[in-house]
Amino acid sequence: MALTNKKISVVVTCYNEAGNIQAMYDRLTAVLSKVTPYFEIIYTDNASTDNSEEIFRKLAAGDPRVKVIFFSRNFGSSQFGLAAGTREAKGDAVVWIDGDQQDQPELILEFAKKWLDGYQVVYGVRIGRRGGSFMRRLAYKAFYRVFRHMAYVEVPVDAGDFCLIDRKVVDVLNAMPERDRYHRGLRAWAGFRSTGVPYVRDDRFAGESSESWTKNIWWAKKAVFSFSYRPLEWLSYIALFVIGLTFLGVLWQLFAFFVLHATPGGFISIILLVFFLGGIQLFSLAVIGEYVGRIFEEVKQRPLYIIKEFLNEEKKGNGAPKNPHERLSFAQQGEMGSGTVD
């Protein structure tokens, strides 16, 4: 017997996940049938280069509960897939999950139980990881703790995007106008009654991860500069430190000249000082540039993504498809949206 008759939407973000799509569908339908008879699975495909499209079309043709959003190009981040799927989700609750099967779909049953108990945000807490190097696992652990210390909102430790969120939270997230989206941070910022469900994250079922060390550093920067002012505060501390060193240096030079009667010298000292100050200036520009770059992206007001095709898209009441410019109009009105080229 199902837990509820409420509808649940599952948003699955994919890029080159041909080896995972069918298995993910099988696992999702098995667990969702235990939760509710009313559900939908929304795959978002970030312009995969493998045979994912063929598999998606076969799934969508055989099951109307499967919806597939194809982007017009690779928009670079799974965050846009989450945004697109969440925008189109019709459920009373929405689940976010990656398409690589590292997050276990079977946990959705536990998420749903917590949701029905009154929690509006239920997220998975990664207490361990299977696979990957020791250094990578250590880096993940360190990042979540450093980020929590730096962020101006309380972000759960070891919690990724995998979660279930209530329709109230979904509506809040959909109304947020920002383009540079880090959904687990936005989820924490939105608030609401939240709880975590611990689990051990699996290794990939099939395929290879596109998350290199460089990409992980990019993710860390995205999180920090989206939800922390600490780097800007550090610049002021560094400036005060340099001013203090300069003041001490002046005192030393005066002491050496008037007391020790030593002629101040130091060609090497000048060179080192120039490099030191130059390094601080470059670092300061880099930090400021990160924030300015994000402002630049926001003020352009471009749509988050462009939908090339939407399989099994729900029609409006008169049977006509949605206005192809509707999603773009959300962006023009200051809300999140996408353009379409259907």
UniProtKB/TrEMBL annotation:
One of its GO terms (molecular function) is glycosyltransferase activity. Residues 316-328 have a biased composition (Basic and acidic residues). Residues 9-171 form the Glycosyltransferase 2-like domain. It is found in: Membrane. Gene3D superfamilies: Spore Coat Polysaccharide Biosynthesis Protein SpsA, Chain A (3.90.550.10). The keyword Membrane applies. It comes from the Bacteria. This is Glycosyltransferase 2-like domain-containing protein.
